[in-house]
Amino acid sequence: MRYNTKKRMMAALTASALFSGLSCAVVHAATLEEVQNQGSIRIAVANEVPYGYLDEDGDAAGAGPDVAKPILEELGIDTIEWTSTAFSDLIPGLEEDRFDMVAAEMAILPARCQRVIYSEPNTSYGEGLLVAAGNPEEIHAYSDFAERDDIKVAILGGADQREILQALGVPDSQLVVIEENAEAIEAITNGRADAYAGTGLTVSELEKQDPQVEVALNFVDPILNGEEVRSWGGFTFAQDSESLRDAFNQQLLAYKNTEAWEQTLTQYGFTKDDILSSFKYTTEQLCSE
Hints:
By secondary structure, the protein is α/β, with parallel strands linked by helices. The chain has helices spanning 9-19, 32-38, 63-74, 90-95, 110-113, 144-147, 161-167, 183-189, 200-207, 242-255, 259-267, 272-277, 283-288; strands at residues 40-45, 53-54, 60-61, 79-84, 101-107, 116-118, 123-125, 127-132, 153-156, 175-178, 195-199, 213-215, 223-224, 227-228, 231-238. Keywords: Signal.
């Protein structure tokens, strides 16, 4: 089941409100001809494992970058200038021409589609919770924060977990906004938050980094309007970069039929169900509902 449907109107409206005060003017948008003539392209990630990040050597890795690299090579673009920025800065960065493309597996949401254009889905993924080791507060679902007023949950600024939690009835007073996923562990261990709400893959990666935190066992997937929450991630471009997006799309759809694509996603922890689910909806469907 998916969350990106007509039934997610509440989340879409909330996200639109969050974005309403920000400028949507595009300074300049890269075209396919421009990046091919330059032989280079600027791509941003949000330093989020396993979606898109820079490793200790400054090299880009993750499901987004590792799929983008062979596709861009096919398009004749040999040089990639990688940039790491806060997740909340990805869309503004495209609008302000600070980079040409985003490879962060950003969820395709109707409100975001009003500001940027997406490739077809590259990935699909579900939700998860990171809690203190031993789960002393016995938190097992996003809905727990709506049913209890004595616990707080950390969320990544600009991520759609805010809309999911708000749609479930969690008040802003129980939300702790952080700028990077790496801050989630400290937020929990220093008592600012009792848990961190993120995708299942994200919280699994964070669990590996510190024995003081763990993934909540018996996690209950969020349900909104009778449907399980699931996201579809894609590559993101500025509004006027249709020629670049379209050419990238053509190569992406072909690449998704190769073993190399499936092996890349499997390497980063995506399950067989995640991989198959990425084919379930088109970007047009996800943006319009």
